[in-house]
């Protein structure tokens, strides 16, 4: 039975699409239009109290029982372990893979996201906030540059969920005020991953729905206004 993937075409959604494509696991896309407020629908909240995509429902989870999961990092580990691929089997390499996955989850995702918020969406342009997150984005690129000038992939020799989690945040560098020419090892890694057919299929999932242009008042309300912060 296919895995239901509740998702939208954002970096956190693309991680899951790419992983499923790489693993060849059957899945059904359930679009959750976060600009239209669909993340607050009761059927989605039943899967995740955090009202953020992505979330999955696997009818054939551990022990043959259904499993619902949110948080993209947990989903990637679950899928990789289910298929027995994209996470190193060697115990030491496995920990290194999880380390870089956590680096993405705790560093790259939140910091790049805050940069986007203050540079592109905040109604006032706050120089301190923009500068603070621009510095973090640059610093995190330097950490990745150091790692990827030593090994081909974040976990070491093997392509893994650590690369898949990070890649969607590195594509579209202009959105983060980054010139990849300043980070040649990151650029080479990016180009290798971008050339993978499964990655190309993954980033195409719901691509026609990608938000472009300025944010509308109702999108702003759903994502950053009272609707977002209402008690549920
Ligand atoms: N830590 C979460 C973050 C998920 C997240 O921030 N998702 C965003 C899209 S990339 C979202 O659903 N936003 C909807 C909202 O802010 O209401 C994960 O990795 O799954």
UniProtKB/TrEMBL annotation:
InterPro entries: Glutathione-S-Trfase_C-like, Glutathione-S-Trfase_C_sf, Glutathione_S-Trfase, Glutathione_S-Trfase_N, GST_C, Thioredoxin-like_sf
Pfam families: GST_C (PF00043), GST_N (PF02798)
Stretches assigned to the GST C-terminal domain: 90-215
Ranges where the GST N-terminal domain occurs: 1-87
Similarity section: Belongs to the GST superfamily.
Stated name of the protein: GST-like protein
Organism of derivation: Humitalea rosea
